[in-house]
Write a structure and sequence with these properties.
- This protein is an alpha/beta fold and about 280 residues long.
- The chain is built from 12 helices and 9 strands.
- The longest helix is centred in the N-terminal third of the chain and has 15 residues, at about 80-90.
- The model has no long low-confidence stretch (mean pLDDT about 95).
């Protein structure tokens, strides 16, 4: 059995490789990366695979039984890039593709959903057996802002009282490994999210508790929040997108209570308090 992972040097990919090695050992794991030199520390075979260069993909996928297609981080290019990988996987005879999609992709208001839906459709059209992991929000998406919030004395956003069923990247990585090494998952669509949802006010309260400082959550209009993000150097398009996702979260776009993720990994998802503590240690 040979299992390949795209984006293996990314934040999620590295966790998947590490957890796969713990479960099955390094033999039979292939890291698919644009620059194999950057994967030298992974301790597994690395092959060049560039989403933008289809000629590299079929060769990289030779002999692969299962492929974890971790969604590209290039928003706006994802649908075409993923289609290239799927076509190459089919041509190379890959038996099963596991894809990291977005929570409730087919009904989500998030702008991110469009390319995920296109990829899910490409998978269906390919005829290759596949599993869709609709990953919810990484707790780190918000926890990454904690140091700045502590420094500024407030946590800001536009998510209102929206409940966010976040889970850590490690939780989602473990789910991917469970599916890659298990049987009976082909054809399934899994809606994956954390066991306990939190609001940004809950997050701010947890940060306050752990730091001993009063760090309130200040809810802002979408344009004002986007303006703050632009003010700290984010490109306009990214800042506008992040603010829009917060507004979508305020309407329930990041909430899910099926506990499918914890069932897949066989343990509760990582508590918010643990994720906050990890962010404060950095």
């Amino acid at each position: 059995m040979t299992i390949a992972i795209t984006g293996a040097t990314g934040q999620l990919g590295r966790l998947v490789v590490a957890k796969l090695k713990q479960k099955i050992g390094p033999a039979g794991i292939v890291a698919l990366v644009r620059d194999p030199a950057k994967a030298a520390d992974l301790g597994v075979e690395a092959r060049q695979a560039d989403y933008e260069r289809p000629e590299t993909l079929e060769k990289a996928l030779a002999g692969v039984d299962k492929l974890l297609l971790i969604s590209s981080n290039e928003i706006g290019k994802r649908a075409a890039q993923h289609a290239n990988v799927i076509a190459a996987a089919k041509a190379a005879g890959v038996g099963e593709i596991v894809y990291t999609s977005l929570l409730h992709a087919d009904t989500s208001p998030l702008s991110l959903a469009v390319e995920h839906v296109a990829t899910e459709e490409a998978l269906k059209a390919s005829g290759v057996a596949h599993v869709i992991l609709r990953n919810g929000w990484y707790t780190e998406n918000y926890a990454g802002s904690i140091p700045a919030a502590v420094q500024a004395g407030a946590f800001v956003g536009s998510a209102g009282e929206g409940r966010i069923a976040g889970a850590t990247r490690a939780d989602f990585a473990e789910a991917a490994v469970a599916v890659l090494t298990g049987e009976g998952h082909a054809g399934k669509v899994y809606e994956l999210a954390g066991d306990s949802a939190f609001t940004l006010a809950d997050l701010a309260a947890e940060v306050s508790s752990q730091t001993g400082k009063a760090i309130p959550y200040k809810d802002l209009p979408q344009a004002d929040y986007a303006g703050i993000l632009k003010g700290v150097g984010l490109p306009d398009a990214i800042a506008d997108a992040i603010a829009s996702w917060d507004v979508d979260a305020s309407k329930g776009a990041l909430f899910e209570d099926s506990h499918t993720l914890s069932k897949l990994i066989g343990r509760p998802t990582t508590p918010l308090a643990d994720a906050v503590a990890a962010a404060l240690r950095k």
